[in-house]
Write a structure and sequence with these properties.
It is built from eleven helices and four strands. The chain is mostly helical. The relative contact order is 0.10.
């Protein structure tokens, strides 16, 4: 009896997201979703699998870590391989043992806070530099190599504009990983266009923060009629609350 028990391995309880990830992996490796094809939206996939959107999102992160798909915010999730990467020396390892999901978790935290600080502290010089980078990235003839470099430079400039030297230094240390990942996905359909649209929104928001500071500085020191003009302008742009 003891001998029989020693041969039995405990059955692990799979999470819903793991089951979904396993099915998606099969669909991709069997060619149901071909390399280069865009997956249906998260909401649609969640309905088809009969799971919550959070479980669906976790499943997509899982197969992204295995090197099968690549997520591009605002554009979608694309199949980049029909072969699951091995854990040793695979595309799962972006740089020095860190994975794509880990890289994106750190990026989201740092870029969000950097943009928030930059919106309050950016100087005219940094604002002009960001606009220049956007202008250069908008050139359809710009080589992908240059686009990738400018992509990182834009985010690095926002980090510098935050006027937090430590934040800028830490963000700069991500350059090898970010550039390596960007080269891997830059040729995906809509990648550059989606990235540029996202960059434009970020820069507009950061620069708008500076414009608001300048406007309210004028309001604080200007004549009463100037203050009323600014208030009226703000209400018109934001929508005056109904009574």
């Amino acid at each position: 009896m003891a001998e029989t028990a020693s041969r039995i391995e405990r059955v692990e309880r799979l999470r819903v997201s793991d089951s979904v990830a396993a099915q998606l992996t099969q669909l991709i490796t069997k060619g149901v979703y071909a390399v280069g094809e865009k997956l249906p939206p998260e909401r649609v996939l969640a309905e088809e699998f009969g799971v919550s959107r959070s479980s669906m999102r976790e499943a997509i992160r899982s197969i992204e870590a295995s090197g099968l798909v690549s997520s591009n915010h605002g554009v979608g999730v694309f199949v980049v391989s029909n072969t699951v990467a091995s854990q040793a020396g695979s595309d799962l390892l972006v740089f020095e043992g860190f994975t794509v999901p880990e890289l994106f978790e750190v990026r989201r935290m740092m870029e969000r806070d950097a943009a928030g600080l930059a919106a309050r502290r950016i100087t005219p010089g940094y604002a002009s530099e960001l606009q220049d980078i956007l202008s250069r990235c908008a050139d359809p003839d710009l080589p992908n190599e240059e686009f990738v470099k400018l992509d990182f430079k834009l985010h690095q400039t926002i980090a510098k504009a935050s006027k937090n030297g430590l934040l800028a230094t830490i963000y700069g240390s991500l350059e090898p990983m970010m550039v390596k990942y960007s080269h891997r996905v830059i040729d995906l359909p809509g990648r550059r266009e989606g990235s540029h649209r996202g960059h434009t929104k970020i820069v507009d928001a950061v620069v708008a923060g500076r414009r608001r500071r300048k406007s309210f500085a004028t309001w604080a020191t200007g004549a009463p009629e100037s203050r009323q003009t600014l208030i009226t302008s703000s209400q018109n742009s934001l929508g005056t609350p109904s009574a």
